[in-house]
Amino acid sequence: MATHVESPLIASLDQEFNPWMSQAARFDYAAQKLNLDDGLWKILRYPTREIIVHIPVAMDDGRIEVFTGYRVQHSIARGPAKGGIRYSPDVTLDEVRALASWMTWKCAVVNIPFGGAKGGVICDPKKLSLAELERITRRYTAELMEFIGPEKDVPAPDMGTDEQVMAWMMDTYSMHMRQTVTAVVTGKPVNMGGSRGRREATGRGLMIVCDEALKKLGMRSEGTRVIIQGFGNVGSNAAKLMFEAGYKITGVVEYDGSLYNRNGIDIDDLLDYRQRNTTVVGFPGAEAAESAQLLTTECDILAPCATENVITSKNADKIRCKILAEGANGPTTSVADDILADKKVFVIPDILANAGGVTTSYFEWVQDRQGYFWKESVVNEQLDNIMKESFEDVVRYAETHNVNNRIAAYMLAIDRVAFTIRQRGIYA
User: Fold this and answer.
1) What mean pLDDT do residues 395-405 have?
2) Which of 156, 152, 145 has the alpha carbon at shortest distance from 118?
3) Does residue 98 register a pLDDT over 90?
4) Which residues of 355-372 are buried (b: 16+ CB within 10 A; e: fewer)?
5) CA separation (Å) from 238 to 207, 305, 351?
6) Which residues are catalytically annotated?
7) H helices within 178-232, ranges in order?
8) Bridge partners (DSSP) listed for residue 270
9) Given the DSSP bridges, would you call strands 225-229 and 301-304 parallel, antiparallel or unpaired?
10) Mean pLDDT of 253-262
11) Residues in a beta bridge with 57
12) Using CA atoms, how far apart are residues 358 and 204, in angstroms rounded to an integer?
């Protein structure tokens, strides 16, 4: 029998904001609840491979800059590694490690045949020209040539990257292979082998599990008050789809300013306003609000859809929502989990709530390998089925094992990956 930590609490509050330690604490607790043996514990607790590259790039003004990039492959037990690439000045190896392991558990929760990976380059895409971004992307891809591929590791967009970055990655890989390889990345433009419905998929998946949570709690979507933190790809698509389904979006929290309207914000108008002004600040259909205060404003659903460590020991006790739907990766620290559990908040954990993106990336990978592409209605129907089944699996697991939804999702995922490793005969 394994003897490891018995609580998801981090030993020191100083470590609370380290996403890798937060992930490890939850993994340890879930593994202990599963009575996972020591050998599998050691295999699954740490990444399989960590790659660090230092890439020289010629800048537009003639200078040479050297950028640091990472690619971490946590597990390939169930299939090729899968995970996004983020461009951000705040990228760290620990963050990429945590995101890679979350991808392993996420793919296992929705039961698709991928393992987990993640990548990142330390840079600020807002301060770089399109040509500089292209040179960084191509050089980064070239450094990873022997580690990525349709059967090895399939990157996707993440924070600071998009369809264009994926197109450059696919082209660079294809140049080295001397043939067009569309399945090397997902999240590509549709006319280059991308999937219909991929751009909206994470937000759509988030709405699907919110719908299921409302049914579980005996609530209706009409008039349900929602506050969304982060209005990027995930947050804006979730807001639009939920608005169309009758949810009342009362608040939007953005990095440069926040909005509140107790009667609901017209999301179509807000999206039009942002398209014209590149910001939500000054939108006439809602009042300006203070971001930290809006996070703790009473609502039915709070959906953090931006970055890690938004709900912490400092504000978790002030959160006033019935449902916390995590559109972002790691928005809640492990210390905050216990506080939310005491408050009886129904948490839809990130490795379930935002799994719509990787699920539709899986559909894109399948379509690329088949050379046959689906209608958007088929993509959305398949996504709907998988998200509903996965929600039911997690809730049933939570009730059976008397744990919260997050630990249930981890236990379900770890159990599936561990089963595969045992079947493959890793000890032989």
Assistant:
1) 95
2) 156
3) yes
4) bbbbbbbbbbbbbbeeee
5) 6, 9, 16
6) 118
7) 201-216
8) none
9) parallel
10) 92
11) 65
12) 12
Whose tokens are 């590149």? That residue is: 278
For residue range 86-97, list pLDDT tens digits in order. 999 999 999 999
Determine the number of helices (DSSP H) and then strands (DSSP E) in the chain: 14, 12
Contact yes or no for 77/420 (Cβ under 8 A):
yes
**Do the beta carbons of residue 19 and residue 98 sit within 8 Å?**
yes
Q: Quote the DSSP letter at residue 155.
A: E
In this predicted structure, what is the pLDDT of residue 308? 83
Task: Quote the tokens at residue 312.
Answer: 């912490």
**Cα 142 to chain centroid, rounded:** 25
Burial label for 157, CB within 10 Å (0-12, 13-18, 19+), is: buried
- Give helix 19-34 / helix 38-45 axis angle, nearest 10°: 160
CA 166, CA 195: separation in Å to the nearest integer?
A: 13
CA 178 – CA 195 distance, rounded (Å):
24
Q: What is the number of residues in the chain?
A: 428
Pairing of strands 301-304, 287-289: unpaired
What whole-number percentage of the chain has pLDDT above 90?
87
Token digits for 74? 């946590």
* HSE (side-chain half, CA atoms, 13 Å) at 126: 4
Is the CB of residue 69 less than 8 Å from the CB of residue 52? Answer: yes
- Please report, as a single letter, which amino acid is at residue 69: G
Alpha-carbon distances, residue 321 vs 9, 33, 303, 326, 344 (angstroms): 22, 28, 10, 13, 10
Distance CA 158, CA 339 (A): 29
Q: How far is CA 309 from CA 15, 118, 329, 422, in A?
A: 12, 18, 9, 34
Entry pTM: 0.91
Q: Quick one: CA torsion of 276, 278, 282, 286, rounded to 10 degrees?
A: 80
pLDDT of residue 15: 76
